[in-house]
């Protein structure tokens, strides 16, 4: 069987047997392409790579400028792919069995301070429809810790303003409910009022597209997509002087700030929708490091002996 056919079988298995979302399947496909490109540079098929080759692949990814977190994600794809090939009888042994990303490559997620979050939230011009939508989007993402795909995938009926709960569809089509903070609720009410007026205006002018059920819309009344959301957040981060800003940094900040203010790890795990608490534990490392930084900065005997 060709390498291409094996990849199709694997992606089909992920879609049917594991119920992964379209966005996740696309990410798996992109990661597999990286493996294929590397294998071709060696004159090999991806499924014929051995452990030595795969270690070289990780080095190749690092030299290409990929961040440690992204390399770790690619490694997850590679592990799952070779496990599938082994279980399906295409391989006799799994070359990823003892393969790990070197610890020296591992970095903690980037997190904004509360003050930086405030600067970011202040960037959109809420006097315009787009600005009001963007402020609401940023408020909601920070208030709930939702991923960008979960946020743009929200439908009008997913946010209950009476109970202050948003229902989102996470990885593997798993549904979860997350509370919305008071600030985000206030902005949501303002945005929904403007959204209603926008669609009513477009109905009067008889624009060709139908009324949309998507929660977040463009000023043309069409659903906001993931790519637009990435660009918006990146631009607002630049304006706020925060450097390279990604949607996931809001999620990281949400989790870290909860733990810093006393939330327990299990509650944060449920709010983030992590299936394994070990995934959530990375945020305890962040809070510990921040506490250490504060200690070393302010304790009179932290930096030198007396």
Elements, N to C (H/E) = HHHHHHHEEEHHHHHH
Shape verdict: globular
What's the helical proportion of residues?
55-70%
Proportion in β-strands: under 5%
- State the secondary-structure class: mainly alpha
Identify the CATH architecture of the largest domain. Answer: Orthogonal Bundle
Number of domains: 2
Q: Quick one: CATH class of the largest domain? A: Mainly Alpha
What does this structure look like?
The chain is mostly helical. It folds into two domains: 3-100, Orthogonal Bundle (DNA polymerase, domain 1), CATH 1.10.150; 114-295, hpI Integrase, Chain A, CATH 1.10.443. It is 58% helix and 4% strand. The chain contains 13 helices and three strands; from the N terminus they run αααααααβββαααααα. A three-stranded antiparallel β-sheet has the order 1-2-3, with no helix packed on it. A hairpin with a 4-residue loop joins strand 1 (159-160) and strand 2. The radius of gyration is 22 Å and the shape is globular. It starts with a helix and ends in an 8-residue tail after the last helix. 26% of the residues are buried. The mean pLDDT is 88.
